Amino acid sequence: MKRFSKEENSWIFYDWANSAYSIIISTAVFPIYYKAAATDAGVSPSDSTAYLGYTIAIATFILALLGPILGTIADYRGFKKRFFTFFFSIGIVFTGLLAFIPTDKWWLLLICYTLAAVGSAGANVFYDAFLVDVTTEERMNRISSRGFGLGYIGSTIPFIISIAIIVLAQNEVIPLSVTLASKIAFIITALWWGLFSIPLFKNVHQRYYIEREPNPVFNSFKRLGNTLKEIKKYKALFLFLLAYFFYIDGVGTIITMSTAYGTDLGIDSTNLLIVLFVTQVVAAPFAILFGRLSEKFTGKKMLYVGIFIYIIVCIYSYFLETTLDFWILAMLVATSQGGIQALSRSYFAKLIPKEKANEFFGFYNIFGKFASIMGPLLVAVTAQATGNSSSGVFSLVLLFIIGLVILSRVPEPKVS
């Protein structure tokens, strides 16, 4: 295997940059910060978890609607980087703004979080589509997996800094409140994300595209319509998307709502942050391992492995009672969360026509995002109906089983 090129490394490095948002805002500090703010305002634990689930559903619904349309327009020469920059900017601005919202305005925190999530997820649509521009098909599994692996490693640095500030504030070692320490973490995230995205802006360019033509918006809708009419031509691709719709729903829901779930189990914020940190460290080598094993056993078989592990996670979560149980659950997730996401991305990239990468990654986004509406809503409704978050997480096992069955009918992509 030859060394990574400058373009491959620059693309990979964006995962290093953006993963700070994924762990600090999506998974760790912000959910705990929000839960504390909502509790202080008199909102019950199950309701605050439900509201977070509804908010995630709204954010993903917005992106699901925009993804294919914007992706189709972005397939024109020079448009991909512009759309990436637009959403990237929204994500960074509203991530930073989280630090300036009063804690008694918990509902405003959710609105700002929604816009930050739209920016982050929107940028990722076009970032993922750049995979076809920076490498060859036979290297996609390894490059995609290396991106997730580097992302887990890179995210631990701002995470450690943020945890250190918060823990020192909790123990009154430094003259800061926990609230202010958490706000500093949001600023650190925005700065880290922006600074380490520079290599992608400098070195990654759109190699595959459609030449510009008059009325690009109208013609983009026309091309999108033609793709939908010719869906039978892409049977394997859309069959994979259907499988992805189900299994990635469970993956995304477990990632985004894990801290809220842990809080409902009575696990204190310090333990939650430590668990999430170790999860990132463990996930890094496993993401890279999935990429290497896919070259020996195929990407599809490694996706089977990841889905099977998540089924075990869902079943085990129903019986969680102690902090040790949560540790075991987190380590199980760490072994497969990066691998299943990385190999799904590269599997899909191999199936699509490269000059329509943005359009098809728009569909990838819409299937993933609409799935992410169903999962949080399922957990939210179940949590409110039963007063027990574990029941909602357990119900996700059905989605993984359905995804597994459909995936078994998808052919392994041929490397051209």
Features:
single chain, 416 residues, mainly alpha, Growth Hormone, Chain: A, globular, Atg22-like, transmembrane transporter activity
Number of strands: 0
Structural class: mainly alpha
CATH topology category name = Growth Hormone, Chain: A
CATH superfamily heading: MFS general substrate transporter like domains
Fraction in helix: over 70%
Gross geometry: globular
Largest sheet: none
Query: What are the low-pLDDT stretches, counting only 5+ consecutive residues below 50?
Result: none
Number of domains: 1
Subcellular location: Cell membrane
GO molecular function: transmembrane transporter activity
Keywords: Membrane, Transmembrane, Transmembrane helix, Transport
Protein name: MFS transporter
Summarize the structure.
This protein is an all-alpha fold. The protein has helices at residues 6-27, 29-40, 45-74, 79-97, 106-129, 131-134, 140-170, 178-195, 198-203, 216-229, 235-264, 269-297, 299-317, 323-351, 357-386, 389-395, 397-407.
Q: What would you say this structure looks like, in words?
A:
- The protein is built from 17 helices and no strands.
- By secondary structure, it is mainly α.
- It has a single domain (6-206, 214-407), classed as MFS general substrate transporter like domains (Growth Hormone, Chain: A, Up-down Bundle), CATH 1.20.1250.
- α7 (140-170) packs antiparallel against α12, α11 (235-264) runs parallel beside α15 (357-386) and α11 (235-264) runs antiparallel to α17 (397-407).
- The longest helix is centred in the middle third of the chain and has 31 residues, at 140-170.
- The model has no long low-confidence stretch (mean pLDDT 82).
